[in-house]
Amino acid sequence: MHNDFDSLAALIARLDGQGRVVDANSAMESALGLSRRKLQGLTFAQFLQDSETLDLALTKGQAGAEFSMFRFDSTVHGVAGSDAELRVHVHLTRIDPDGEWLLELWPQSDQARTLQDSRVQELAETHRMLLRNLAHEIKNPLGGIRGAAQLLSMDMQDPELLEYTQVIMHEADRLQSLLDRLLEPHRHPQIVETVNIHEVCEHVRSLVLLEFPTGLQIEQDYDISLPDVRGDRNQLVQALLNIVQNAALVLRPKMVHNEARIELRTRVARQVLIGTKLHKLALELHVTDNGPGIDPAIRERIFHPLVTGRDDGTGLGLSLAQTFIQRHDGMIECDSVPGRTTFVITIPLP
User: Fold this and answer.
1) Which residue from 21, 62, 77, 268 could staple onto 39, CB 3.0 to 4.6 Å apart?
2) pLDDT given for residue 285 in this prediction
C-alpha cells in the first residue's frame, strides 16, 4: 500500500472483489495485531461483528456500477489479538472496475476528536486573521494619538492638564504593547533547528522562578531518552513560558503558604492522532499545577484570543501558545478540575 496511507489515522485496507485483504496500512496492522503480510488473503468480514453488512455491500457493488460507495457503522472484534472491540465508521469505496475496494475504518472516538481538532484549528486561524487585521487598523491611529498627546505635553504649563496628557500616552503605550503581542506570531519567520525540549523547560523554569522566587516549587519529571525536536526554539520557549506563567499567576494565594506547585513532565507518546494525521512518535509535555482550576464557563474557550479568567489578564497568552505549537504541527489540550490543571503540549517527533 502506498506510504501515504501509513500516515493516516484511519484503519485502511485494500480488498479484492471477494472481500479478501490485498494490502493494509500501519494503523490497520496495529489495530488487528497482524502484519499486512499475514493479513493478505484473509477475508476481512471475519473481523467485523456484523460481517453480513460488508458481504452485502460487496455483492451489491459487484452487481451494478451504480453501487460504488457504502457507509455503515460496525464493530471490529479481536482488536490487537485480544477480546477487545472497537466501534468504527466503515467507508467502502470501489477503486477500480475489476472489483478492488478501499476499506476505511474510522474509530468513532477518533473521528469525534478529529472533527473537534479540525474545528479548533479552523477557529483559531479565523481568530488570528481577524485580530491581525484589526491590530493593523488600530496601530496607525493609535500612534497618531500618542504623538499628538506628546506634542501637547511639551507646551503644557498647567500640571493638571499635563497629567492628562501623561495618562493618554500611558494608555496608548499599553494598547501598543497589546497590539504588538497580537502581531508577534506574524512578524518573524519560523527558524527551524534541532531543539532539546529539556533545555527549553529548564530555561522557562529559571525565568518563572526568578519572577516568583518564594513560595513556588517547579518540579521536573523528564524522560531523558526523548530525542530532540525540530522547531523554532524561541517560539517553543514563548509557548511554554505563557503556560507556566499563567499557572504561577493563579497560584499566588498558595505561594503565601508555600504550597504552590507546578510540575513539568515529558514523555514519548506512540501512535498519536493530531488533527487528521497519525504520528508514530510524539513528544508530550505536561504542565500541571495545584491551583483552583479553570472556570467551567470559559474552559472550552481558553485558547480563544482575549478570553481570560483573571481580572488582570489580557487573554493572549494561551492563544499565542496554541498558535506557536500549531506552527510545529502540534496541539495544546487542557484538563482541569479544582486542585489540578494540566496542559498537554503534543509535538510530532521526527
Assistant:
1) 21
2) 96
What's the fold here for domain 3-111?
A: Beta-Lactamase (3.30.450)
CA distances from 35 to 30, 31, 80, 156, 272 (A): 8, 10, 11, 82, 19
pLDDT band at 263 (very low <50, low <70, confident <90, very high): very high
* Residue 65 pLDDT greater than 60, yes or no: no
Residue 94: pLDDT over 90? no
Provide the CATH number for the domain formed by 113-187 in this structure.
1.10.287
CA-CA-CA-CA torsion sign (107, 109, 112, 116): negative
Residue 159 contacts by C-beta under 8 Å, 6 or more apart in sequence? none
More confident residue, 275 or 10: 10
Please compute, for residue 319, the number of CA atoms within 13 A of its CA located in the half-sphere on the CB side: 24
Residue environment code for 46-66, b if the CB has 16+ CB neighbours within 10 A, otherwise e: ebbeeeebbeebbeebeeeee
CA distances from 65 to 14, 43, 60, 209, 295 (A): 19, 23, 9, 68, 55
Confidence category of residue 306, pLDDT binned at 50, 70, 90: low
Work out the mean pLDDT of the chain and round it to a whole number.
81
Amino acid at 241: L
The H or E element spanning position 112 is: helix 108-155
Q: Where are the domains of the chain?
A: 3-111, 113-187, 193-348
- Paired residues of 282 in beta bridges: 269, 348
Is 77 within 8 Å of 68 (Cβ atoms)? no
Question: Which residues are within 8 A (CB) of 18 and not within 5 positions of it... i.e. 6 or more apart?
Answer: 43, 58
Pull the grid cell for residue 237. Answer: 520557549
User: 242 in helix, strand or coil?
Assistant: helix
* Distance between CA atoms of residues 43 and 150, nearest Å: 80
